[in-house]
Amino acid sequence: xxxxxxxxxxxxxxxxxxxxxxxxxxxxxxxxxxxxICEQFIAPTIGLPADGAEIKQSxxxxxxxxxxxxxxxILGDGQAIGATTIVPxxxxxLEVPLLSGYTxxxxxxxxxxxxxxxxxxxxxxxxxxxxxxxxxxxxxxxxNAPGSPTPSPLPSLDYPIVENYYREKRSAADGxxxxxxxxxxxxAVVSADVIWVSGKAExxxxxxxxxxGQRMAYVVASLEGTYRAFVGLQLGDNIIQVRxxxxxxxxxxxxxxxxxxxxxxxxxxxEKHILIDAITLFALAIISLSIVWAINARHxxxx
Length: 303
Fold this sequence. Notes:
CATH superfamily of the largest domain: Immunoglobulins
Structural class: alpha+beta
Shape: elongated
Oligomer: single chain
């Protein structure tokens, strides 16, 4: 103890030297371990549509697998056209728009370390719709000639996920159509933790699907004004709402509530009620037989 007391400065200096020498190495080792863990995740795949498929509609459902809980972004010719959260069983599905001609689809995941994993590339073909015939006898080559169709403006998409991608022309509409949720219905009870959410929205608009206030998917509404995406649910009540955005205008749908109940709970509930019904029927049968026996006994005495 006397030696330590007399040589405090020497001990403190030695301790400081050890911290300076060894601390950076430990920090570097921790960072290396963290990075290696961060980079390990399952690459996405595209199961549908099949490579080389011809799609008649102006949109297609893309489904596949990936790392549960991560966001998968669908790229069309290198541009992001939709994204959704991969559900706990490792699957995803969402509807994305198609332009006329060939489109190369790729699913992409990016983790917190900015590590990118791409899926297999799938090429689909969407045939161009027939050219419209201008009314009257105007000259189609002259845009100012009587009877020539007036070109409608392209939708202005300033949302990063689909910026400068959606190029199809659409009919001009007054205002912004309020989106609606067609499936599932309000107050629905389901026994699966993932469901399809589908409905109607402004054609070409960005449709964002919220579950309990959390953004779960965003897709582009098709030219027909439809949207669809696979989303995960939490146990119990789930409040689902949809927002549609296009050209600085937006609108929200009415919210619906979907209750997720585990299958074994549903089966237990049904079994309980079936048992209660069986007991009730048995009791009613005993009462009926007793009444019949009493009536017969009374008639026997009267005779």
